[in-house]
Design a protein that fits this description.
By secondary structure, the protein is α+β, with helices and mostly antiparallel strands. The radius of gyration is 33 Å and the shape is globular. It has 10 helices and 10 strands. The strands form 2 sheets. Strands 1, 3, 4, 9 and 10 form a 5-stranded antiparallel β-sheet that branches. Strands 2-7-6-5-8 form a 5-stranded antiparallel β-sheet. The longest helix has 18 residues.
Protein backbone atom coordinates (compact mmCIF):
# COMPACT_ATOMS: atom_id res chain seq x y z
CA UNK A 1 0.00 0.00 0.00
CA UNK A 2 2.83 2.38 0.88
CA UNK A 3 4.53 1.64 -2.46
CA UNK A 4 1.34 2.53 -4.37
CA UNK A 5 0.96 5.75 -2.38
CA UNK A 6 4.55 6.70 -3.25
CA UNK A 7 3.87 6.15 -6.95
CA UNK A 8 0.78 8.33 -6.83
CA UNK A 9 2.67 11.07 -4.97
CA UNK A 10 5.48 10.99 -7.53
CA UNK A 11 3.02 11.42 -10.41
CA UNK A 12 1.33 14.38 -8.71
CA UNK A 13 4.66 16.15 -8.10
CA UNK A 14 5.67 15.92 -11.77
CA UNK A 15 2.40 17.47 -12.85
CA UNK A 16 2.86 20.49 -10.49
CA UNK A 17 6.39 21.18 -11.78
CA UNK A 18 5.17 21.36 -15.36
CA UNK A 19 2.45 23.90 -14.50
CA UNK A 20 4.87 26.29 -12.73
CA UNK A 21 7.77 26.16 -15.29
CA UNK A 22 9.32 29.50 -16.33
CA UNK A 23 8.20 29.12 -19.93
CA UNK A 24 4.61 28.82 -18.81
CA UNK A 25 4.68 31.73 -16.38
CA UNK A 26 6.62 34.15 -18.62
CA UNK A 27 9.67 34.33 -16.29
CA UNK A 28 12.62 36.23 -17.82
CA UNK A 29 14.81 33.21 -17.21
CA UNK A 30 13.42 31.94 -20.48
CA UNK A 31 15.14 34.72 -22.53
CA UNK A 32 17.83 33.84 -25.13
CA UNK A 33 20.48 35.65 -23.06
CA UNK A 34 19.86 33.53 -20.02
CA UNK A 35 19.94 30.34 -22.08
CA UNK A 36 23.26 31.31 -23.68
CA UNK A 37 24.84 32.16 -20.31
CA UNK A 38 23.74 28.86 -18.82
CA UNK A 39 25.15 26.90 -21.75
CA UNK A 40 28.49 28.65 -21.50
CA UNK A 41 28.63 27.92 -17.76
CA UNK A 42 28.22 24.21 -18.53
CA UNK A 43 25.11 23.89 -16.38
CA UNK A 44 22.37 22.41 -18.60
CA UNK A 45 20.22 21.78 -15.54
CA UNK A 46 19.73 25.52 -15.22
CA UNK A 47 18.20 25.75 -18.68
CA UNK A 48 14.50 26.62 -18.71
CA UNK A 49 12.37 23.52 -18.81
CA UNK A 50 15.26 21.23 -17.84
CA UNK A 51 14.66 18.77 -14.97
CA UNK A 52 16.87 16.54 -12.84
CA UNK A 53 16.07 12.83 -13.24
CA UNK A 54 14.63 11.48 -9.98
CA UNK A 55 15.87 8.05 -8.72
CA UNK A 56 13.65 5.16 -9.82
CA UNK A 57 11.40 3.90 -7.03
CA UNK A 58 11.65 0.19 -6.13
CA UNK A 59 8.66 -2.00 -7.04
CA UNK A 60 6.97 -3.26 -3.82
CA UNK A 61 7.12 -7.02 -3.12
CA UNK A 62 3.33 -7.11 -2.99
CA UNK A 63 3.23 -6.06 -6.66
CA UNK A 64 6.01 -8.43 -7.72
CA UNK A 65 4.21 -11.40 -6.14
CA UNK A 66 0.75 -10.43 -7.35
CA UNK A 67 0.77 -12.63 -10.47
CA UNK A 68 3.24 -15.28 -9.38
CA UNK A 69 0.62 -17.99 -9.97
CA UNK A 70 0.54 -16.99 -13.64
CA UNK A 71 4.29 -17.40 -14.24
CA UNK A 72 5.54 -19.80 -16.87
CA UNK A 73 5.76 -23.47 -15.96
CA UNK A 74 8.98 -24.60 -14.35
CA UNK A 75 10.81 -27.72 -15.39
CA UNK A 76 11.16 -29.93 -12.32
CA UNK A 77 13.32 -33.03 -12.32
CA UNK A 78 11.52 -35.85 -10.51
CA UNK A 79 14.13 -37.42 -8.22
CA UNK A 80 12.58 -40.76 -7.27
CA UNK A 81 15.28 -41.41 -4.67
CA UNK A 82 13.75 -38.68 -2.51
CA UNK A 83 10.42 -40.53 -2.21
CA UNK A 84 11.26 -44.20 -2.15
CA UNK A 85 11.40 -44.70 -5.91
CA UNK A 86 7.73 -43.85 -6.39
CA UNK A 87 6.63 -42.53 -9.79
CA UNK A 88 4.44 -39.42 -9.84
CA UNK A 89 0.96 -39.97 -11.26
CA UNK A 90 1.13 -36.41 -12.66
CA UNK A 91 4.01 -34.03 -13.28
CA UNK A 92 4.93 -31.43 -10.69
CA UNK A 93 3.96 -27.94 -11.82
CA UNK A 94 4.01 -24.56 -10.10
CA UNK A 95 0.57 -23.69 -8.74
CA UNK A 96 -0.73 -27.28 -8.89
CA UNK A 97 -1.73 -28.90 -5.59
CA UNK A 98 -2.15 -32.66 -5.25
CA UNK A 99 -5.46 -33.19 -3.45
CA UNK A 100 -7.40 -36.15 -2.08
CA UNK A 101 -10.24 -36.86 0.38
CA UNK A 102 -10.08 -39.56 3.04
CA UNK A 103 -11.19 -40.88 6.42
CA UNK A 104 -8.29 -40.78 8.91
CA UNK A 105 -7.30 -43.67 11.17
CA UNK A 106 -5.43 -42.98 14.39
CA UNK A 107 -3.22 -45.97 15.17
CA UNK A 108 -2.95 -47.71 18.52
CA UNK A 109 -0.02 -49.66 19.92
CA UNK A 110 -1.78 -53.01 19.32
CA UNK A 111 -2.39 -52.09 15.70
CA UNK A 112 1.31 -51.35 15.19
CA UNK A 113 2.14 -54.72 16.74
CA UNK A 114 -0.16 -56.42 14.23
CA UNK A 115 1.41 -54.42 11.41
CA UNK A 116 4.90 -55.62 12.37
CA UNK A 117 3.75 -59.24 12.32
CA UNK A 118 2.19 -58.80 8.88
CA UNK A 119 5.26 -57.06 7.48
CA UNK A 120 7.62 -59.73 8.82
CA UNK A 121 5.61 -62.44 7.08
CA UNK A 122 5.16 -60.47 3.85
CA UNK A 123 8.91 -59.79 3.68
CA UNK A 124 9.51 -63.52 3.14
CA UNK A 125 7.78 -63.05 -0.22
CA UNK A 126 8.61 -59.41 -1.12
CA UNK A 127 11.49 -57.87 0.82
CA UNK A 128 10.95 -54.34 -0.53
CA UNK A 129 7.61 -53.78 1.22
CA UNK A 130 7.58 -50.60 3.32
CA UNK A 131 5.08 -49.69 6.05
CA UNK A 132 2.76 -46.80 5.23
CA UNK A 133 3.66 -43.46 6.81
CA UNK A 134 0.03 -42.75 7.74
CA UNK A 135 -3.21 -44.70 7.65
CA UNK A 136 -6.52 -43.73 6.10
CA UNK A 137 -9.40 -44.91 3.92
CA UNK A 138 -9.55 -43.03 0.63
CA UNK A 139 -12.77 -41.44 -0.63
CA UNK A 140 -11.21 -40.13 -3.84
CA UNK A 141 -8.25 -40.61 -6.08
CA UNK A 142 -5.52 -37.96 -6.11
CA UNK A 143 -6.45 -35.00 -8.31
CA UNK A 144 -4.81 -31.70 -9.20
CA UNK A 145 -6.20 -28.38 -7.97
CA UNK A 146 -5.00 -24.94 -8.97
CA UNK A 147 -4.25 -22.81 -5.93
CA UNK A 148 -7.22 -20.48 -6.47
CA UNK A 149 -9.58 -23.49 -6.62
CA UNK A 150 -8.76 -24.75 -3.12
CA UNK A 151 -11.10 -22.50 -1.11
CA UNK A 152 -14.21 -23.00 -3.32
CA UNK A 153 -13.46 -26.74 -3.51
CA UNK A 154 -13.26 -26.98 0.30
CA UNK A 155 -16.42 -24.89 0.63
CA UNK A 156 -18.31 -27.33 -1.60
CA UNK A 157 -17.17 -30.25 0.55
CA UNK A 158 -18.20 -28.34 3.67
CA UNK A 159 -21.71 -27.89 2.30
CA UNK A 160 -22.16 -31.59 1.44
CA UNK A 161 -20.35 -33.74 4.02
CA UNK A 162 -21.37 -32.56 7.53
CA UNK A 163 -24.96 -33.76 7.02
CA UNK A 164 -23.76 -37.39 7.26
CA UNK A 165 -23.95 -39.28 10.55
CA UNK A 166 -20.98 -40.94 12.17
CA UNK A 167 -20.70 -44.70 11.80
CA UNK A 168 -18.48 -47.69 12.57
CA UNK A 169 -16.79 -49.85 9.96
CA UNK A 170 -14.62 -52.96 10.13
CA UNK A 171 -11.41 -53.53 8.14
CA UNK A 172 -10.37 -57.16 8.64
CA UNK A 173 -9.92 -58.68 5.17
CA UNK A 174 -6.37 -58.68 3.76
CA UNK A 175 -6.25 -57.73 0.08
CA UNK A 176 -3.57 -56.83 -2.48
CA UNK A 177 -3.94 -53.69 -4.61
CA UNK A 178 -2.07 -51.89 -7.38
CA UNK A 179 -2.40 -48.28 -8.48
CA UNK A 180 -3.86 -47.40 -11.89
CA UNK A 181 -0.47 -47.24 -13.63
CA UNK A 182 0.77 -50.51 -12.03
CA UNK A 183 3.82 -48.72 -10.66
CA UNK A 184 3.08 -49.54 -7.02
CA UNK A 185 1.62 -52.47 -5.10
CA UNK A 186 -0.14 -52.25 -1.73
CA UNK A 187 -1.11 -54.58 1.08
CA UNK A 188 -4.35 -53.39 2.63
CA UNK A 189 -7.21 -54.29 4.92
CA UNK A 190 -10.52 -54.16 3.06
CA UNK A 191 -13.69 -52.77 4.64
CA UNK A 192 -16.01 -55.69 5.40
CA UNK A 193 -18.80 -53.68 7.06
CA UNK A 194 -19.84 -50.06 6.57
CA UNK A 195 -19.48 -50.30 2.80
CA UNK A 196 -22.85 -48.66 2.06
CA UNK A 197 -22.02 -45.63 4.23
CA UNK A 198 -18.74 -45.17 2.38
CA UNK A 199 -20.59 -45.33 -0.95
CA UNK A 200 -22.86 -42.51 0.20
CA UNK A 201 -19.87 -40.38 1.21
CA UNK A 202 -18.13 -41.04 -2.10
CA UNK A 203 -21.28 -40.11 -3.99
CA UNK A 204 -21.18 -36.63 -2.45
CA UNK A 205 -17.42 -36.31 -2.99
CA UNK A 206 -17.90 -37.25 -6.65
CA UNK A 207 -20.48 -34.49 -7.06
CA UNK A 208 -17.90 -31.98 -5.86
CA UNK A 209 -15.38 -33.46 -8.29
CA UNK A 210 -17.86 -33.01 -11.14
CA UNK A 211 -18.31 -29.33 -10.22
CA UNK A 212 -14.60 -28.81 -10.85
CA UNK A 213 -14.42 -31.22 -13.82
CA UNK A 214 -12.20 -33.65 -11.92
CA UNK A 215 -12.19 -37.45 -12.12
CA UNK A 216 -14.63 -39.28 -9.80
CA UNK A 217 -13.55 -42.12 -7.52
CA UNK A 218 -15.37 -44.74 -9.57
CA UNK A 219 -17.26 -44.92 -12.84
CA UNK A 220 -21.01 -45.46 -13.13
CA UNK A 221 -21.25 -46.99 -16.61
CA UNK A 222 -19.97 -50.36 -17.75
CA UNK A 223 -17.97 -48.79 -20.61
CA UNK A 224 -16.00 -46.63 -18.18
CA UNK A 225 -15.30 -49.29 -15.57
CA UNK A 226 -11.82 -50.66 -15.10
CA UNK A 227 -9.72 -52.12 -12.32
CA UNK A 228 -8.82 -48.60 -11.23
CA UNK A 229 -12.45 -47.38 -11.37
CA UNK A 230 -14.70 -50.31 -10.46
CA UNK A 231 -18.46 -50.19 -10.13
CA UNK A 232 -18.14 -50.85 -6.39
CA UNK A 233 -14.80 -49.57 -5.08
CA UNK A 234 -12.92 -51.66 -2.55
CA UNK A 235 -12.57 -49.33 0.42
CA UNK A 236 -9.47 -50.24 2.36
CA UNK A 237 -6.78 -49.24 4.82
CA UNK A 238 -3.36 -49.42 3.15
CA UNK A 239 -0.73 -51.01 5.41
CA UNK A 240 2.39 -51.26 3.24
CA UNK A 241 3.60 -50.61 -0.31
CA UNK A 242 6.40 -51.37 -2.74
CA UNK A 243 7.50 -50.09 -6.13
CA UNK A 244 6.34 -52.07 -9.19
CA UNK A 245 3.56 -54.56 -9.84
CA UNK A 246 4.35 -57.41 -7.45
CA UNK A 247 0.76 -58.49 -6.89
CA UNK A 248 1.41 -62.05 -8.14
CA UNK A 249 4.07 -62.60 -5.47
CA UNK A 250 1.81 -61.31 -2.71
CA UNK A 251 -1.42 -63.04 -3.66
CA UNK A 252 -2.08 -66.74 -3.20
CA UNK A 253 0.07 -68.28 -0.45
CA UNK A 254 1.28 -64.98 0.99
CA UNK A 255 -2.23 -63.53 1.14
CA UNK A 256 -3.49 -66.61 2.95
CA UNK A 257 -0.69 -66.39 5.52
CA UNK A 258 -1.42 -62.73 6.18
CA UNK A 259 -5.13 -63.38 6.65
CA UNK A 260 -4.37 -66.12 9.18
CA UNK A 261 -2.27 -63.63 11.18
CA UNK A 262 -5.13 -61.13 11.24
CA UNK A 263 -7.72 -63.75 12.21
CA UNK A 264 -5.53 -65.12 15.00
CA UNK A 265 -4.44 -61.78 16.46
CA UNK A 266 -5.82 -61.16 19.95
CA UNK A 267 -8.73 -58.68 19.99
CA UNK A 268 -8.40 -58.10 16.25
CA UNK A 269 -12.19 -57.88 15.89
CA UNK A 270 -12.18 -54.89 18.25
CA UNK A 271 -8.87 -53.46 17.07
CA UNK A 272 -9.93 -53.26 13.41
CA UNK A 273 -13.20 -51.43 14.10
CA UNK A 274 -12.88 -47.83 12.91
CA UNK A 275 -15.10 -45.05 14.23
CA UNK A 276 -15.73 -42.76 11.27
CA UNK A 277 -16.27 -39.36 12.86
CA UNK A 278 -14.77 -37.00 10.28
CA UNK A 279 -13.66 -36.66 6.68
CA UNK A 280 -10.49 -34.84 5.71
CA UNK A 281 -9.22 -33.18 2.58
CA UNK A 282 -5.49 -32.77 2.04
CA UNK A 283 -4.31 -30.30 -0.59
CA UNK A 284 -0.56 -29.92 -0.72
CA UNK A 285 0.41 -29.50 2.93
CA UNK A 286 -2.96 -28.07 3.96
CA UNK A 287 -5.44 -30.35 5.75
CA UNK A 288 -9.14 -29.51 6.11
CA UNK A 289 -11.47 -31.39 8.48
CA UNK A 290 -15.21 -31.98 8.11
CA UNK A 291 -16.76 -33.47 11.29
CA UNK A 292 -19.76 -35.73 10.78
CA UNK A 293 -22.96 -35.49 12.86
Amino acid sequence: MSGAAMLVGYSSSSSSSSDSSPSASGDEGGSPAVQEAATQAGDPASLPGASIAAPRLPVPDSVLNMFRDQEEKETVVDDRSKHGGRVRTFAHERGNWATYIYVPYETQEDFLDLLQLLLAQAHTHVASLTAAAEFHISLSQSVVLRHHWINPFVQSLKERLPSFHRFVCRTDQVKIYTNETKTRTFVGLEVSSGHSQFLELVSEVDRVMEEFRLAPFYKSSAEERSEAYPENPSFHLSLAWCVGNLSEKLEGQCLQELQEIVDGFEDSSYLLRIHVAEVRCKSGKKVFSFPLR
